[in-house]
Amino acid sequence: GLAELGAHWIHGPSPGNPIFRLATRYGLLGPAAAREENQRAEAGGHPPLPSVTYGSSGRVLSPQAVSKAHELFDALLASARTFWGAGEPPAPSVGQYLRAQIAPRVPTLGGGREDARRLQLAVLAACVKLECCISGTHSLDLVALQPFGEYVSLPGLDCTFPGGYGSLPDRLLSALPAGTVLLNKAVRTIRWRGSFHEDGDLGRAFPVRVECEDGDAFLADHVIVTVPLGFLKERHQDFFQPPLPRRKAEAIRRLGFGTNNKIFLEFERPFWEPQQQLLELVWEDESPLEEPSTDLEATWFKKLVGFVVLQPPEQHGHVLCGFIAGKESEYMETLSDAEVLGTMTRVLRMLTGIAAAPLTPTP
């Protein structure tokens, strides 16, 4: 099978998406992605996959109740995007804004019935976790409200590369002359705002010199730097000579990013139905209005939003891909595969109520 450790989907696969256009040109996508009706679909970044939602009480939750909470959350999230370029927002962060919108609605959630109200709040809490994964953050309190609407979702039902995401860069590389792309060529310093010359050629000056760890150097008029933000935070002061302007350095300092992780679980036989493509997990004692536990050792797995069923099973086997973000995700990185596998097995058995042999994943 194929496990995408990095990017998984093309989000918004439609003519306005350059990745989609390239993949289509090279014939790297399946037939469903080429259908015009799929390219026109307005999914808002959240494709409506057939799903089942498991609650922490070991039962499948009412699809109607889950759908109602999702609809409310989607509406609130859409309203959070309206403050882009609109002056002073009503709250500093997306998290604070959502809580302020949810709180006055609590008395009417679930038709006023206490058990239904608690379930609606629990599903809303699960929606917040999903949005943390999408935004790549530990908490929506870390996501500024005013620019939240700057991100625009293109139309189209998300699709994958049957041959893996790597098939696109491989195809691009194949069209370039040999030696054009140098791998494992670590750069030590980028010297810019200079006047550099090739040996023996004083007639042409280049403003940039890229110096590598192995002593090689390259002269250029322009250099596009795409290193991770974390690298820039640690190294920008000595990586660029002269140092970057103060406004650039300040932007690097103030920008944030979070941790997203995937968990792949392979099963001999599926415990889910063939039509199900998404298994959602809801902890029924949670609420978006309450602070989550900070005891990561005891509760890290509760940040897991659920599992996508990798499709098609003929190619991937019976594999679930789980998503988890934030500090809980970072804590998980300190655990062994065996510890993660044991926890995932316990969680799935508890939420699905299935303790039989089919629910024995392998890492």
TrEMBL record:
Record field: transmembrane: none
GO cellular component: cytoplasm
Entry keyword Iron-sulfur: no
Domain of life of the organism encoding this protein: Eukaryota
Organism (species): Psophia crepitans
InterPro entries for this protein: Amino_oxidase, FAD/NAD-bd_sf, Flavin_monoamine_oxidase
Gene3D superfamilies the record matches: 3.90.660.10, FAD/NAD(P)-binding domain (3.50.50.60)
Domain Amine oxidase: 3-354
GO biological process: spermidine catabolic process
Names of required cofactors: FAD
Leader peptide range in chain numbering: none
The protein, known as: PAOX oxidase
Listed GO MF terms: polyamine oxidase activity
Keywords: Cytoplasm, FAD, Flavoprotein, Oxidoreductase
Family (UniProt): Belongs to the flavin monoamine oxidase family.
Cellular localization per UniProt: Cytoplasm
